[in-house]
Fold these 2 entries.
Entry 1:
Amino acid sequence: MSHMQIELELNGETETFEASKADSLLDVLRANGYTGAKRGCDTGACGFCTVHVDGEPVTSCVTPVAKADGASVETIEGLGEQDDLHPVQQAFVDNTALQCGFCIPGMIMRSTALLDENPDPTEQEVREALSDNLCRCTGYKKIVEAVLDAADRLEGERAVATDGGPQDDADGRMLDSGCPPGRCDCSGGEP
Amino acid sequence: MSDSEKASDLDDGTDSARAEEEKAATSGTVDDAASEPDRKAPDERENITTNAEKDDARKIVTGEARYTADYRDRFPDLAHGKVVRSDIAHGHVESVDTSAAEALEGVDAVITPFDDVVPDKLYSSSGQSYPEPSPWDLTVLREHVRFVGDPVAAVVAEDPETADRAARKVDIEYRELDAVFDPEEAFDEDAPQLFEANEVENKQSGADYSRNLESHFEGEIGDVDAAFENAGDRDNARVIETTWETPYQSHCVPEPHTTIAYTDEDDRHVFITSTQVPFHTRRQIAHLFDVPIRDVRVTKPRIGAGFGSKQEMAIEPIAFALHLAAGRPVKLEMTRREEFTALRFRHPMRMRMKTAVTDDGDIEAMDLDTLSNSGAYGTHGMTVANNVGTKPLPLYPRVPNVRFSGDVVHTNLPMGAAMRGYGAPQGHFAVESHMDEVARRLDLDPIEFRLQNAVREGDLDRSVAILKDGDRFTRKIRSCGIRECVRRGKEAIGYDDLEQPEADHLHRGVGMALIAQGSGVAGKELGAAQVKMNEDGSFHLQVGGVDTGTGADTMFSQIAAEVLGCPPEDVVVIAADTDLTPFDYGAYASSTTYISGRAVKNAAEDAKERLLEWGAKLLDEPPEVLDTGDGRVYSRETGNRASLEEIGYEATYGDDQREHILGDGNHSTDESPPPYGAQFVDVTVNEETGEYDLNKLVFAADCGVAINPALVEGQIEGGEHMSLEYATSGGLSFDDDGNPDVLGFRQYGMPRTTDHPEMETILVETHEPTGPFGAKSIAELPTNGVPPALSNAIRDAVGVRLTELPFTADDVKAALDEQAGGER
């Protein structure tokens, strides 16, 4: 096995990983503790391992890690935290849009990619965007409802921001300070 | 505290209810559902029927929930396993050359059926109570292979890639035997025989391995043959017979079966594993490897669903043998291809249904026979086939003559096993499509015909009695909302005012199926739980019940909280660890809410008694006037109150005699009250192409009191998803040598977001007096309905009857062409 070093812009931080040439991006992520992306098929057919590479949703199990070298990669670990969820995550929780949860990190990454591109999708557009992500537990109903709900939440936050209220950051999370992102060093705590 | 109930102990006094229902049934209209007695529970609930947040929801959406494979970081010296599987359908292993594999750098060991670490004992992989009714016909690795995918050898290496490479270098030579793939051909005297006498121990009824017969069973109430003869002789009655066929279905379990096996510093063997049955697995591992039960620990982390595929000790023994061979922790993780070719499936079946019925729609006799293809081994073979009749036939409990029989046959194909619904999806397809066909041939409304004969409160539950010739478990149905399910389902689907499409070649129709399931295996269940109080007024709940992703842990916390008078988030659930929690049979047969949930309730009530005693001391009032609620013990007479926190500190650190407030509870019962439902399908059929579009699915469910309705809806919508697949797109196929055509999701027709029609879910509340806070089960019920309801809807739309799942456009077109030919 030939070993190599891979550099990723992972969730905003530059990270270097040891990898084998045959490794997929999923192999390397999971071997280094980023286990939110799940291994469901190793053929790119279930969507459980969906992450963003340079802003595009990809199935990381069929993305050779060599191809991702130098790329910007976003995983579920880079979204919100349990006590500060991203609006899409919050919508999945509030809509009970999850059961066993194995497909959910991939489903959420696919959903955030959709909403970045199309902030106000119709139900049919949500269904089409998620059609490569399988779920065995929910019948998809509450998942589709959660994504539509998340779109409303994000829209609401944007409306507040335009109103001069608190701003949201690139991920759509609220910043408490009311300072424009990137233009202030107050770190978001105190105005 | 424990309670063990016999049906006879609970005389429920539903006579007046029954009289009222009988009146409703005689007039025979659906609207009479309104006259069903008020079954609702007194509305004194704080926690039970709220949509408490699923307790693992936040860690799931942040990717922090840990499934078995995610524990690899806890084991720096973890080795990785890989199974080498048979590529022939039937034969004996002559030799296994492991030298090339063992020579690879990084390979720890290669094991074969001939190695000492691999037991050669027979066992059953079925996660059933002891002794398993399923035959003992497996060995851990197999010298006699019986299907393409049988495990012959296994490799353990320092990384997954090396294990894969080594597995490909294991060279197996076979002596091939003739194989048989059709269950009817397997009966032939000169068909290849799969099992010699010394290769199986089988205590089931009717086994005859010279004919590849794993089980034959039958039971009868009344005299069915006489009833058919009698009906055939009369002008006002007729006998109608139909046949039905169903394919293999894959669980498509999201998380592939995964096990980490290791031995700890106390020389105890530990399994972190994706299982629905930790306690059965512990017992089976102990027996198989001849180690004491106390030295085996089975823990279940989050699991990526089971649906029955993990009601099986499917891979744990191989993982453990690899661990013994390697001398270090081993992870064995199945691939999706193994899930689709080598693990477990829903049994394919052929069924024949026959009824004698009067022109007025009174059923005089029913006869159901099933032929189940068990595949190569018999796990859950007989018991699944039993459910084909014992779940749907009791929908019509007043039919005087009923017979049910079945044969379970081996072929050289993958193993049928437990799958959500457990025989009931096959049975409902036959029974509920047949009932619709009978009504249409008699020119009766299919729904009215069903309700004329359908179950009511006060009827005897025949579910177990059918195969016992009527002499056992003659319990009464105490909760049944089936008429309200039908009434509300009809409204939601628009049954009475369906608009036809304008185009002449498009035809719209609606079909309905009645549905029943059980709540646990009648007479074969045990759940147990313990509650312990923390001094801050919170609790730990230790329960053997297994959350497979359904939200069971959340449901447990809500039940405990309801009794203890605290919010559900103050109950920390520790579940399904054979070292840390009380015993439980596991998550199967829709038993978790009804059995394990009731054990939790009993444990919480036991702890509550102690809370009231301590409250009585603090408040100086008798415990009889006290109750719990709002995080307190309060007096119903004076309004005085003490917080749970005050009680916790006083009991733990007070000056008086101190006590750790604990409660324990068991639940075992002969009861298994059926939940009921009605599935509606609205379809538009293109008569030129045979293509059909589902416009809407409606499922109305009576699961008693719905604990956490949002989670209950999730069960229904997910169950319908599987049922939709079964009806429209699922199934496996094999070539002439038994090689599987379906290797992954790309070849398998699992419905996607874009394949799902609009779905409406209706919860019809009844109160089951034997259930925890009136609850019955929900998990399996909704897997039964779409095939019959869709068959009935297509019949309604274009007049043709589809009898083989799944229904393709070609099938519909062929049936339409045949219909047109017949008319010519």
Note: Confidence is low (pLDDT under 50) at residues 167-191 of chain A.
Entry 2:
Amino acid sequence: MSAEANIRTLTIDGADISARADQTILEAAREHNIAIPTLCHLEGLSEVGACRLCLVEVKGARRLLPACVTRVEEGMEVTTHSAKIDRYRQMILELFFAERNHVCSVCVANGNCELQNLALELGMTHVEIPYQYPQLPVDASHPRFTVDHNRCVLCTRCVRVCSEIEGANTWGVMGRGAQSLVITDLKEPWGESETCTSCGKCVQVCPTGALFEKGRAGTRTAKHPEFLPYLRIMREGDQP
Amino acid sequence: MTDRKTLATVWLDGCSGCHMSLLDMDERLIELSSQFVLLYSPLVDRKTFPERVDVTLVEGAVASEEDLKKIRRIREHTGVLVSLGDCALTGNVSAMRNTCGPQPVLLRVYQENVDLKQHVPTVGVPALLDRVRPVHEVVPVDVFVPGCPPSADTIYQVLSELLAGRVPTLGGVAHFG
């Protein structure tokens, strides 16, 4: 196939855009500085479409589609912001806050949290959905890191980075729906995991205070997931 | 005097940090004070909530029978009700006991950690509700001001708008925590 045939033209928010056929709506939009909020997406990791915050309207589609896992198509007409989309995103965000115990004021990630920032960005001032207040464990058995399930949004970035980048496959998900938990090995205490290399990549990619490094507070809890794309590029360079 | 708005501030289940932040407005309080009369507040003497108040700022979550009674009366006698800070908005730290209910917390405080006179007080103190609730789960709220506490700048902005007869929205301006 020639290079030209690989190009798709579409409109996003009325602007004419061309993208490669293998790109997603999210990639195409971001390349053209069109903002779409995301939480589970992270450059350098595979897409799972778990958080649904990137929902967009595509003309002709009967439901909203997640931009991160929807490929661009010829002639597509995409809308990234409308009253309907804003309402859905707000609701999704409220569901995140209501589902577990996100107490920003006493969270290690306060000020460095993607969920907290999204609430600000999307203009959420309060949660209409009743809070669930589940009883959830905190595992501090690892000498350097802690997992606090109260703050977990089940984005599975930790699971993906551990599998796709570190290759350790320590992290996994157990259970269903709101009862799901991210677990180390077969739900062994993190500190007793035989597969964990203690690399800390999961901590760096975690968007909230669910995974954090012990002994760090305030501004020192800022995470640095930006190493991922570079790691990816360098490894791809090594491929034969 | 007559064109001044009437203002009240209320302290439910919170740490008083929001009131501290209110006082943190410093000289701007004096600037605004020509525009309102403070009728009821932990900062003034009056014991009962007045018949009519234009604007009431509520700090804290609804955690006890007394909070519940108070906030219902306040709503009834207030024009614009403002949830001030994360406890009023989300339950925040006050609501952290909701995962286990009030009993384990009371036992921890009044029995396990006490050497003398171990007993949970029941006389002269309001009974705790089974669940701490954000203000808007109990009564309708008009303005939501996030923050733990909201900054003095944010409170100044909110008060200025309210005193000018406008209802501000804090979406995209102030964050939780």
Note: Residues 106-225 of chain A form a domain with the Alpha-Beta Plaits fold (CATH 3.30.70.20).
